[in-house]
Design goal:
Layout lengths: L4 H11 L46 H10 L5 H8 L4 H6 L6 E4 L6 E4 L11 E14 L5 E16 L5 E5 L4 E4 H7 E10 L5 E9 L4 H11 L10 E2 L20 E5 L9 H17 L6 E6 L2 E2 L17 E4 L2 E6 L2 E3 L5 H5 L5 E6 L5 E6 L4 E5 L2 E4 L10 E2 L5 E3 L9 E3 L5 E3 L9 E7 L5 E8 L2 E11 L5 E13 L3 E6 L4 E6 L5 E6 L4 E5 L4 E5 L8 E4 L4 E5 L2 E6 L2 E4 L1 E2 L3
Parallel strand pairs: 1-6, 10-11, 16-37
Antiparallel strand pairs: 1-3, 2-3, 3-4, 4-5, 7-8, 7-9, 11-12, 13-14, 13-36, 14-15, 16-17, 17-18, 18-19, 20-21, 21-22, 22-23, 24-25, 25-26, 26-27, 28-29, 29-30, 30-31, 32-33, 33-34, 34-35
Length: 573
């Protein structure tokens, strides 16, 4: 039930476009006037703190007009009405601000040059202005965020109008917003897609203007769109390609019911498909912060009988796993609570331990020794994985497979299942020269890694391709999330759509990165040596070189235990 491969290929090309050179016909599903107020059930999305730009100043020269136009990109009201005031009338009708966003470092990083300086335009009627942007990222017409570092020139043509004022006559579609204000104007909305087994939902983050109705925006994006190109091989969309919205808006009733009118092709769908569609859309609206009790589908004002399907929910937070005083288990109030069938086996290992990862259901653990050897531990015993030297810390997925790879040979990725026979995973980071960390997401559909490509250290993700039995067979194309400025000493998932990376042992910092979104950097506790994730960023833990265990306390780190010799991880975290 996926969109056509041709559509996916075209969208993949769009993802690499870093500047504003976007086709005039492209557009995010976010055009149209903004209604006064918010319908019942909509999320206000902090609209009261949105930045507001001013219109053109009388007598302003070409350079000032372009500067004002760029600044007006922050004001999305009425389909960027303020920005249109800087355009000549014909361009006002054809300019498409929703074609994409170029995100640059800051407003003062822009280099603006004009063919005629503003103080010398008295005797001319036309001019050109070129703006050199220092880009950090871009958002395409589908709301997909991509890192796009580098310089990007943008050209504007202007003419003096009959009233003597300068207006822009040629401009690329799309808008420019500086990085510090991007998240004040746009917000991330994780569209939900099914995994290959139809049993779990996988987020696909999109970015749309915060002032617009989240319900209508995300519903359009889900029904009319497709998964991101990099994620597409691992997920499924319950909405068939020939089913579309029959109305432009998604109203929410006083009973918090989202009324979704569909085209007539939906009336012939079977009950399972309709139930999956409803489940997928309800989860998307919930993830977008929209308060709805249910989604109701209609065709020609007749309700469709759509139920819901069961999907696996994220496991509850299970506590921090550590080795302390030779004992392994959950640390509670300074004491160790053992894990049945696992803790005793770890205690029997005489060699120094380097890493431990425990399955979400405590049924197994992947253990690495300081000498590099890796083992799979289950209640039935311990099996050594037949792998070569130089393995990185192993990761478990929800199917029970252990993943690891030699750090100097990223393409030699292998997984081990219950029979402990190594299985190759094709197309594993073909452009990478080395890899230091890998982590499989809790949904099993995505894998994150820290790799070296062309002398640069990148945090990347990729879709996991599995066969009908859930066996991993290949990785799809990588998506680069962030260029790291130091060696990584820990990688973890911080919920379904965020990653945490501990970088630079000499000056430790933690990078929290949204998958397909911006990130932030915070100082880690001094002498941090390892990092463990959680179901949310606030649950992350850091281990210091002196055995101190740290947890978040607001924006700071607080010591919560001492004497810890190893900080373990949980599968999917």
């Amino acid at each position: 039930m996926r969109r056509s491969r041709t559509s996916r290929m075209l969208r993949g090309v769009a993802l690499v476009v870093a500047a504003l050179l976007l086709p005039a016909c492209a557009g995010l599903p976010m055009a149209g006037d903004v209604a006064a107020g918010l319908p019942l059930g909509e999320s206000p999305q902090d609209v009261d703190i949105l930045p507001v730009a001013s219109g053109p100043i009388s007598g302003a020269g070409p350079q000032k007009i372009v500067e004002g136009f760029l600044e007006a990109g922050i004001t999305t009201a009425d389909n960027w009405e303020t920005a249109r005031k800087f355009l000549a009338e014909p361009l006002q009708q054809t300019w498409r601000p929703s074609a994409g966003v170029s995100i640059d470092v800051a407003t003062d990083s822009r280099t603006i040059t004009a063919s005629v300086p503003d103080d010398e335009v008295e005797d001319v009627n036309s001019a050109e202005v070129q703006v050199l942007l220092d880009l950090v990222a871009s958002v395409d017409e589908f709301g997909e965020y991509s890192e796009a570092v580098g310089a990007s020139p943008v050209r504007f043509a202007l003419e003096r109008q009959e009233d003597g004022e300068w207006r822009i006559t040629e401009a690329p579609d799309g808008i420019v917003i500086d990085d510090p204000r991007f998240t004040k104007v746009f917000d991330g909305y994780p569209l939900q897609y099914f995994d290959a087994s139809w049993s779990r939902l996988v987020p696909d983050m999109r970015w749309f203007p915060r002032r617009l109705s989240p319900a209508t925006t995300v519903t359009k994006a889900l029904i009319s769109g497709a998964p991101s190109a990099w994620l597409d091989p691992a997920v499924q969309n319950a909405f068939p390609a020939d089913v579309q919205l029959a109305q432009e808006a998604v109203p929410i009733t006083s009973a918090q019911v989202a009324e979704v009118a569909l085209t007539r092709s939906a009336s012939g769908l079977d009950g399972r498909t309709l139930s999956r569609m409803r489940t997928q859309l309800q989860a998307t609206l919930k993830a977008a912060g929209v308060s709805v009790s249910e989604v109701r589908f209609t065709v020609d004002d007749r309700a469709l009988d759509a139920g819901v399907v069961d999907v696996a929910e994220p496991a509850a937070e299970a506590g921090t796993l550590v080795v302390k005083d030779g004992a392994f288990g959950r640390i509670v109030g300074g004491e160790i609570s053992p894990i049945s069938g696992i803790s005793d086996q770890i205690a029997e290992i005489a060699e120094p331990l380097a890493a431990i990862e425990v399955a979400a259901d405590d049924s197994r653990a992947a253990v690495q020794l300081a000498d590099g050897r890796a083992f799979l531990l289950r209640e039935t015993g311990r099996d050594e994985l037949a792998a070569g030297p130089g393995l990185i810390a192993p990761s478990l997925d929800r199917y029970g497979y252990v993943w690891t790879v030699p750090g100097t040979d990223p393409t030699a990725l292998r997984v081990w299942g219950d029979d402990v026979a190594p299985l190759p995973v094709k197309n594993a980071w073909p452009s990478a020269s080395s890899i230091s960390d890998l982590r499989v997401a809790a949904d099993g559909a995505r894998i994150a890694a820290v790799i070296m490509v062309g002398g640069q250290r990148w945090l990347v993700v990729a879709a996991v391709v599995r066969d009908s039995d859930g066996v991993p067979t290949a990785l799809d194309e990588i998506k680069q999330l962030r260029l790291l400025d130091g060696a990584a000493t820990g990688l973890s998932w911080l919920g379904p759509d965020r990653l945490g990376v501990l970088v630079d042992p000499m000056n430790p910092r933690i990078v929290t990165q949204i998958v397909s979104g911006p990130g932030l950097v915070e100082a880690a506790p001094g002498e941090a040596v390892s990092f463990a994730g959680a179901r949310a960023p606030a649950g992350a833990r850091v281990l210091g070189s002196g055995g101190q265990l740290f947890a978040h306390a607001g924006s700071a780190w607080r010591e919560v235990a001492t004497g810890v010799t190893l900080l373990a991880t949980r599968a999917g975290e």
